[in-house]
C-alpha cells in the first residue's frame, strides 16, 4: 500500500510540532520580569507551557514512530494483534499503533 500522502502529512505535522516545542522551550527559558506580581503570573503560565510541552514531546515521538513504520513497511499494522488497521482509523489517527479492537 502506498502511504506517500500520509507520510507527507505526518512530516508536515512533525515540523509543526517541532516548531511548537521550540517556541515553548524559548518561552520557558525567558528569565522573566523584575516585577514580583508579573513573575507570579508568568510562573502560572509556565506550568501550562510545561504541560503542553510534555504533550507535544509525546506527539512528536508518536509521529516519528509512524514515519519510521512507513519506512520499514510496518505502517498500518496493529502492533498488538498484527492485523491491518482500518483505513478510517488511520485517516483519523495517522500515528495510531493499534486497531480499534486492540485500542
Order of helices and strands: HHH
Task: Please mark out the parts with pLDDT under 50 across 5 or more consecutive residues, or reply none.
Answer: none
| Major sheet | none
Q: What is the number of E strands?
A: 0
Which value, in Å, is the CA radius of gyration? 18 Å
Helix content: 55-70%
> Please, how many helices?
3
Q: Alpha-carbon distance between the termini?
A: 23 Å
pLDDT average, as an integer?
A: 89
- Helix and strand composition category: mainly alpha
Strand content: under 5%
| Overall shape | elongated
What does this structure look like?
- By secondary structure, the protein is mainly alpha-helical.
- The chain has a domain at 4-75.
- It is 66% helix and 0% strand.
- The protein is built from 3 helices and no strands.
- The longest helix is centred in the middle third of the chain and has 37 residues, at 36-72.
- The radius of gyration is 18 Å and the shape is elongated.
- The mean pLDDT is 89.
